[in-house]
Amino acid sequence: MRIFRIGRKSAIIVLLSCLFLVVSGCGITSIDADTLVLDKDMGITEYVFEDFDTTEYNYDDWIQFTKNSIEEYNSANSKAVTLKKSGVRDDILSCVIEYPSDNAFFELNRVPVFYGTIAQAVKAGYNFGKGLIDVNDESVASMDKLIASEEMKILIINMETDVVTTGDIAYIGGNVTLNDNKKSAHVKEGETSYIVFN
């Protein structure tokens, strides 16, 4: 079980009167569902919205446990994880956590994730399953062409979440539904999914 999660939410809920905002250039004005926002420095910001029955769970215990877990990670690593916001309203817990890398995300959540270049992914042993699909013409991407592109980044993950990228999404694979703006997508749980972007 992920340390930051109490239970999976089945519906998208607008939590706070003041919604979390992201850069308008990404084509999204607010975040109201579990979301990973990727940054150009290979960091990941996670927005979490979870059921939190206050008759069963204690927020003070949760926040202390979470802070202790982050402090333990930070004490052993040069780049820090940061809990930016958290709160409970109407039995929904929300928090915003900044991770400096995919490895930091894994260490605290035990959810496998890769965020890097395609060449780095290949070197790490990823084979992209059944292949990556071009979002423009639905053709299968040429791996040689993808590997040769030093600029393209890839997110590899197996968890249900929305994803906001730093550029236009060019290729997808697995359980990914691309949004119209081509800068964000929804990933369903169940199989490893891939999002490639500029």
What does this structure look like?
The chain has 198 residues and is α+β, with helices and mostly antiparallel strands. The chain is built from four helices and twelve strands; from the N terminus they run E-E-H-E-E-H-E-H-E-H-E-E-E-E-E-E. It has helices at 59-75, 102-109, 118-123, 143-148, and strands at residues 35-38, 44-51, 82-89, 92-99, 113-117, 133-134, 153-157, 161-164, 169-173, 176-178, 184-187, 193-197. The strands form two sheets. A seven-stranded mixed sheet has the order 3-4-2-1-8-11-10. The longest helix has 17 residues, at 59-75. The chain starts with 34 loop residues before the first strand and ends with a strand.
Which secondary structure elements does this structure contain, and how are they paired or packed?
Blueprint (H helix, E strand, L loop, with lengths): L34 E4 L5 E8 L7 H17 L6 E8 L2 E8 L2 H8 L3 E5 H6 L9 E2 L8 H6 L4 E5 L3 E4 L4 E5 L2 E3 L5 E4 L5 E5 L1
Parallel strand pairs: 1-8
Antiparallel strand pairs: 1-2, 2-4, 3-4, 5-7, 6-9, 7-12, 8-11, 9-12, 10-11
